[in-house]
Design a protein that fits this description.
Strand content: under 5%
Order of helices and strands: HHHHHHHEE
Number of strands: 2
Shape: globular
Mean pLDDT: 76
Number of helices: 7
Oligomer: single chain
Strand order of the largest sheet: 1-2
Distance between the termini: 42 Å
Helix content: 25-40%
């Protein structure tokens, strides 16, 4: 089993217990980032089973289109945007997506972990600056939004402010009823 782990770069436990819904899409894409096939689009087609996705096989399409169609389906179906964590050249299919599977060779981005004390201090600071009711009302609809693709364009959720007054084409000043404080884990 160790020899298989060494040659594939996939942990032995993942090889033994694999099922399509385990692990993040980014992790699975990292697994196959060094795969070589005879036809360029076959790398993508070999991933259909790993992600439990059905898409038409279109031999002759280029690898960017094949990979783009797969990644769109992964993000749309799962709502997991970890597949957008890549390094390399962007695709002609969609600039939010990589041109090649080797763009997943780099390890995924990991955010620095905070100690329990740092987390508690941050929560305490936020409790004293953000109106909890307003934050809760905003969190629920944002938490229920999923990224999706439409006409080869990635649509991510965002916060929109209603514009009640504007004077021509110039900088727009947005004011809110409450003071907003930027939070950054320093």
């Amino acid at each position: 089993m160790q020899e298989l782990e060494d040659s594939t770069g996939i942990h032995a436990r993942a090889l033994v217990t694999f099922h399509p819904r385990m692990g993040s899409p980014r992790e699975k894409l990292h697994w196959v980032s060094m795969r070589v096939t005879t036809l360029q689009e076959d790398i993508t087609y070999s991933l259909f089973g790993i992600f439990a996705i059905r898409l038409p096989v279109i031999y002759g399409e280029n690898r960017q289109n094949a990979l783009g169609r797969l990644l769109q389906k992964i993000v749309t179906r799962s709502g997991d945007i970890s597949a957008l964590d890549w390094v390399g050249k962007s695709s002609d299919f969609n600039s939010c997506l990589p041109a090649d599977i080797t763009s997943y060779k780099a390890p995924p981005c990991t955010l620095p972990s905070l100690s329990e004390d740092d987390i508690q201090a941050s929560v305490f600071t936020l409790r004293n600056t953000v109106a909890m009711k307003s934050a809760s009302q905003l969190y629920t609809p944002l938490n229920n939004l999923n990224p999706r693709f439409a006409y080869s364009r990635l649509q991510l959720p965002c916060i929109a402010f209603q514009v009640t007054e504007a004077d021509g084409l110039q900088d727009l000043l947005i004011t809110t009823g409450e003071r907003l404080i930027q939070f950054s884990p320093a």
